[in-house]
Design brief:
Elements (H helix, E strand, L loop, with lengths): L4 H8 L4 E5 L2 E6 L4 E9 L2 E10 L5 H14 L5 E5 L2 E9 L5 H22 L5
Antiparallel strand pairs: 1-2, 2-3, 3-4, 4-6, 5-6
Length: 126
């Protein structure tokens, strides 16, 4: 039996994951195109994030415009953001009201974004 609903949902989704520490799970599941996804419980929020790539540093205006366009037009759950020189995907859910469908939808959206958007974004890499 899982300790909390996050772990139970990960088990139900049959993702390959490991618990790194209390309230922090790391999904490393190539089959579902979810590699390096961190799921953190920081009551009352569940934070789901993954590093997509380094900030390319070249063609900045064009690159940031593309990120904003993807956020506006193609991201159903979550958003691209910049953090410490990295491009990340991030979303938050409220733990108390989060259900299985909502949790799964975020991870499905991340998987789709990583599959479809990375080839577009990687063109800007050094």
């Amino acid at each position: 039996m899982a300790e909390n609903k996050i772990e139970q949902y990960l088990i139900d989704l049959m993702y390959t994951y490991r618990q790194v520490e209390n309230n922090l799970w790391y999904i490393e599941d190539e089959e579902h195109t979810l590699s390096g996804v961190a799921v953190m419980l920081t009551e009352p929020l569940v934070i789901i994030r993954v590093v997509v790539m380094d900030d390319p540093g070249k063609n900045s205006l064009e690159f940031y415009t593309k990120l904003l366009e993807l956020n506006a037009c193609e991201m159903v759950h979550g958003a691209y953001a910049l953090e410490n020189g990295k491009v990340i995907l991030i979303d938050t859910l409220e733990y108390d009201t989060m259900d299985y469908g909502e949790f799964r939808a975020v991870l499905d959206a991340f998987s789709l974004a990583l599959t479809q958007h990375y080839p577009v974004l990687s063109k800007y890499r050094d």
